From TrEMBL:
The lineage of its organism: Bacteria, Bacillati, Actinomycetota, Actinomycetes, Micrococcales. It is a multi-pass membrane protein. It is found in: Cell membrane; Membrane. The chain crosses the membrane at residues 69-86, 125-148, 154-175, 196-214, 220-242. It comes from Antiquaquibacter oligotrophicus. This is ATP synthase subunit a. Keywords: ATP synthesis, Cell membrane, CF(0), Hydrogen ion transport, Ion transport, Membrane, Transmembrane, Transmembrane helix, Transport. Pfam families: ATP-synt_A.
Length: 294
């Protein structure tokens, strides 16, 4: 089984440190302009404070609601509305809305669920995996919607909850299929000389039962955080150059605006790709739990 790094790219093999390095380099280049010119024209780059907005409702209670929570409520409401509208009047010859939903559903079913689990086992976990995919897509896309500009999955709580759901599904599948041998075969692979178990068993325990949910959550989180920071940097710099500087520095605004649109398209692809990767890896973990060697 291929090991994944918590800092893997959406495809799981190329680090996204390049984006973080690009962000740091861009902030360094903009640092000389980040001064107050006396008219309030001060550049404010992206900050981690964006991910911890102030409380809006129920401050001081366990039900605190801030902007991130409202975004998540909004995504859930929109997804429920879209699927209700698209499926309330199902027809043999589908209309436009039903066709789009059926295409999206068929893509997830055939390429992710059945592709990893096969049709027999895939049907059992189809509702969970389809829901997971569209939920993550919806949460990721809010990061590029004007007026929202923050992904619901860019704060650690949601990615770790999704990773726990994936982990529970993996454990459930393995224990149900191999109730007496799942943990034994996971930690003590057959055909290994017994002295090597002192090395292999801790590694298997750490890799299989600890690192999987951690890597799933960190991969999703870091991609959304890096994307948000890049977009905020580009559009904040655009506003600064257009409205707070004079020629020739104003011309830099056209460049940062162009980069903003390019990164927006890129983040659209990343939003869908991250949902694909998260859901597909969940399906693969379930398939490994169901494998006959367990």
């Amino acid at each position: 089984m291929t090991r994944t790094s918590p800092f893997s790219s959406p495809r799981g093999n190329t680090p996204r440190f390049s984006e973080i390095a690009l962000l740091h380099h861009a902030l360094t280049l903009l640092a000389p302009f980040a001064t107050d010119d006396g008219s309030g024209g001060e550049f404010h780059g992206p900050s981690l404070e964006d991910f911890f907005p102030p409380v809006i409702f129920f401050e001081g209670t366990v039900f605190e609601i801030n902007r991130v929570i409202l975004i998540r409520f909004f995504v859930v409401a929109v997804l429920l509305l879209l699927f209700w509208l698209g499926t309330r009047r199902m027809k043999v010859i589908p209309g436009r809305g039903q066709s789009v939903l059926e295409f999206a559903y068929g893509f997830v079913r055939d390429n992710i669920v059945y592709g990893a689990l096969g049709e027999k086992d895939g049907k059992r976990f189809l509702p969970l995996l389809v829901t997971m995919f569209f939920f993550i897509v919806g949460m990721n896309l809010t990061g590029i919607i004007p007026g929202i500009n923050l992904a619901g999955s860019s704060v650690f709580g949601l990615p770790i909850v999704l990773a726990i759901v994936s982990y529970v599904a993996f454990m459930y599948a393995g224990i149900k299929k191999h109730p007496g041998a799942f943990f034994k075969n996971s930690l003590f692979p057959s055909g290994v000389p017994w002295p090597l178990y002192f090395i292999i068993t801790p590694i298997e325990f750490l890799s299989t039962f600890i690192l999987r949910p951690v890597t799933l959550s960190i991969r999703l989180l870091m991609n959304m955080v890096a994307g948000h920071m890049l977009l905020v940097l580009c559009f904040s710099a655009t506003q600064f150059f257009f409205f707070s500087t004079d020629l020739p520095f104003t011309l830099f605004g056209a460049g940062t605006l162009a980069f903003g649109f390019i990164f927006t398209i890129f983040e659209l692809l990343v939003a869908v790709l991250q949902a694909y990767v998260f859901t597909y890896l969940t399906a693969v973990y379930i398939q490994l739990a169901l494998a006959e060697e367990h």
